[in-house]
Specification:
3-stranded antiparallel beta sheet, alpha+beta, 27% strand
């Protein structure tokens, strides 16, 4: 019987059960959680870098492979019945398993990646985000730079003076009202190139429609006066290219521009201000401008000398912890939206870049 037992224990070392491999401490969910956490940390780190005037850098997890092994050992642990007291024999067993992951990283860089990061977001993607359930005001505030003469804090990465944003912000509030009562209609028209060979679009136009018999429509007509009344609705057409008034109808942002915009929501330690590490925006009266006037309800990244608790995401940079509070629902939603838009752009830009393979054990 004991001989059979030894053979059984040895056979156990030949493989690892699929359940152990999938649900153990190095199973699928563990990698899933860690990759998501590090993706969040990488994005927050790059927002903080941009606030300090540093250049962002992305490292993609290209591939993960893991080898599982299980070992069985026989050892003298407990007495075997039938042997004499003067010469006792004992037998025991030990079973253990291990996982050796190999992770491949791909640096996202080069001309193609930079072009995609600087490429304006497709209006179709903006429309689909709104129809998938995202609030129109959050999407517009993040992804749109200009609508006609309404500017959405168009000041670039280093804003020396306060931006214009109030009228654009009011436009977003009005559109959100019509979205809430289910009376907002959006459509995108894509125009093909002139030779008609279907090689690609030369421009797009966003069309917005709301009912006329609503008091908020008058304010919308004041903010966007170039629309038309048709069949009981007020319709506005916003072309990406120069419109008939020699103005840009609508100007979407790129992912990089969105990141520069949200980076102004990063709080900076006073000693870093004193050292001149970060550019300040000043009002005409010489007082510092608070960017939360622009980004309120959109993004706020807090700073702490001590490691924070109860945070959604955190990174350590230049001696401080930067984090989004776990209870800050609005910043969390905007952060998730930014990640979605980044993935839309970065996926198309991934090329056969060199892989950095790191075996872990």
């Amino acid at each position: 019987m004991w001989r059979n037992t030894l053979i059984f224990l040895c056979l156990l070392g030949c493989n690892v059960s699929s359940r152990t491999a999938m649900t153990g401490s190095a199973g699928r969910n563990s990698y899933n959680v860690l990759i998501q956490e590090t993706n969040n940390e990488q994005m927050l780190l790059n927002l903080v870098r941009l606030r300090y005037g540093d250049f962002p850098f992305f490292l993609d997890v290209a591939n993960i492979t893991s080898q599982f092994s299980e070992t069985t050992k026989a050892a003298a642990l407990f007495p075997i019945p039938g042997f004499s007291i003067d010469n006792p024999a004992t037998l025991g067993g030990e079973i253990s398993w291990s996982s050796i992951p190999t992770i491949q990283y791909a640096p996202l860089e080069g001309a193609d990646f930079i072009r995609h990061m600087m490429k304006p977001i497709d209006l179709l993607n903006i429309m689909q985000l709104i129809y998938s359930g995202w609030d129109v005001d959050r999407v517009f505030r993040l992804t749109i730079q200009n609508v006609d003469e309404l500017s959405n804090a168009r000041n670039g990465p280093f804003a020396d003076i306060p931006p214009k944003y109030r009228r654009f912000g009011r436009l977003c509030e009005v559109l959100k009202y019509f979205q809430d009562i289910d009376e907002l209609t959006l459509g995108v028209e894509t125009k093909k190139n002139k030779n008609g060979n279907g090689d690609g679009p030369t421009g797009q136009a966003l069309e917005i429609s709301v009912p006329i018999n609503n008091p908020n429509t008058e304010e919308l007509m004041y903010l966007l006066p170039h629309g038309k009344k048709q069949k009981g609705r007020y319709r506005i057409r916003l072309d990406i290219e120069i419109n008939q008034f020699n103005e840009i109808g609508i100007l979407p942002r790129s992912v990089l521009t969105m990141m520069y915009y949200l980076a102004f929501g990063v709080e900076i330690p006073q000693d870093h201000f004193a050292k001149g590490w970060v550019n300040l925006t000043y009002r005409l009266d010489g007082k510092p401008f608070d960017w939360q006037e622009v980004l309120h309800g959109l993004m706020q990244v807090k700073v702490s000398k001590a490691k924070p608790k109860d945070c959604f995401v955190k990174v350590h940079y230049k001696g401080y912890w930067f984090y989004i509070d776990l209870g800050d629902i609005q910043s969390k939603r905007t952060f998730v939206l930014l990640l979605q838009l980044y993935n839309l752009q970065a996926t198309d830009a991934k090329t056969n870049t060199p892989l950095l393979t790191i075996p872990l054990g």
